[in-house]
Amino acid sequence: MIWYDKDVVDKCIYNLLSNAFKFTGDNQKISLLVQKTVADSGKEYLKIIVEDSGIGIKKEEQEKVFDCFYQAESKPSFQAEGSGIGLHIVKEMMLLHKGFVSLQSEFGKGACFSLYFPMFESEYQPDDFFIETTSDYTTNSTGHPVPELPNSSEPKAKSAYSILVVEDHDDMREMLYSELSGFYTAWQAKNGNEALEILEAHNIDLIISDISMPYMDGIELCTLVKTNVNTSHIPVILLTAKANIESQIEGIWAGADDYIPKPFNLELLKLKVNNILENRALLQKKYKNNLLTEIAKQEVGTESSMDAVFMQKAVEMVKQNLINPDLNGEYLASQLNISRMHLHRKLKALTNLSSSEFIRNIRLEEAILLLKKKEMTITEAAYATGFSSPAYFSTSFTKYFGLSPKEYLLKKEV
């Protein structure tokens, strides 16, 4: 009895067989064997063995072959150049499946890779199980469904941030997805055209894109993202095999937030992703209680000038309509020539505020300016900034500034 994810098993076996074919010539042997085995701990595993009689792997290279981008120095003359990530994907997927992969090889006499899938339910957590309703899967005789693991076509939610990986190379895309989906909600696209469709349908916080792709390359995608008001706020990291300075300049001119040449260190990529998202969170925090001040600080003409112009227009539109009873997210979106959905996404990304919160906070900051001038009473300031009642104004004011309007005025007099 075994609990397994069909997609993981398929991909692991595919990568091992693909690797075996690369290192095995004509008239040599490749075999696949499935058996049950018992580890030294006494635990039972389903063992899938992929063995070949090819060139084998040198002892000093055996610990490195599972590292991302590593390619063995000893290669047969007939082998095509690989990406060096297939075995890394196998290792990562087996760890996600609570199993492991092992290697036995003698140089010149072939290699034997073994996949170990646990056959004991206690290895999994309750959240690892799900009920598969399609005809491709069935529950086992005990009624237990298979455990859920990352799927290549659906996002795996782990945090509030959502990342889009755009890469035409299947292994590279799958590796990046596998590495990132444990921390973020991850989406995949094979080229720029697919990426634009995902951007339209889903809220994406960061894009990681290869440059060289069919149909639409990464430079064109980045340019379209950064010149469209609906998406200009989304950070873009470009990946490319071109390490020359001209290519890097081209990427930066397209609006890329960072540029990483291949092969790259995965930990460095993760760190860059984390830093970009943390910086965005810091900006959102600044906006929380100083919305007008922070927007006024933004300089038009910088690399994010489209976002700066948008925010300034949004603020001015709210100011001009403070007492307009129709002022809401839908009205603001129409005045800014943007859909309500895209307005919500953009404000959330830049300020972590909904459109209604954005409007309310501007009203409150305008109200406090009026109170500072001492030209209006609290009630007059409330109505002058569009609040429906002094009571609602007082509640909102206290929540935003940490003290009531009366307390604020008394503090100013002291």
UniProtKB/TrEMBL annotation:
Domain Response regulatory: 162-277
Root EC class: transferase
Keywords for the protein's UniProt record, in alphabetical order: DNA-binding, Kinase, Phosphoprotein, Transcription, Transcription regulation, Transferase
Name of one Pfam family that matches: Response_reg
GO MF terms held by the record: DNA-binding transcription factor activity; phosphorelay sensor kinase activity; sequence-specific DNA binding
Sequence positions bearing 4-aspartylphosphate: 210
Domain HTH araC/xylS-type: 312-411
Gene3D superfamilies: 3.40.50.2300, Histidine kinase-like ATPase, C-terminal domain, Homeodomain-like
Chemical reaction(s) catalysed: ATP + protein L-histidine = ADP + protein N-phospho-L-histidine
Enzyme Commission number: 2.7.13.3
Keyword Kinase: yes
InterPro entries assigned: CheY-like_superfamily, HATPase_C_sf, HATPase_dom, His_kinase_dom, Homeodomain-like_sf, HTH_AraC, HTH_AraC-typ_CS, Sig_transdc_His_kin-like_C
Residue stretches making up the Histidine kinase domain: 1-121
Name the UniProt record assigns to this protein: histidine kinase
Organism field: Candidatus Ordinivivax streblomastigis
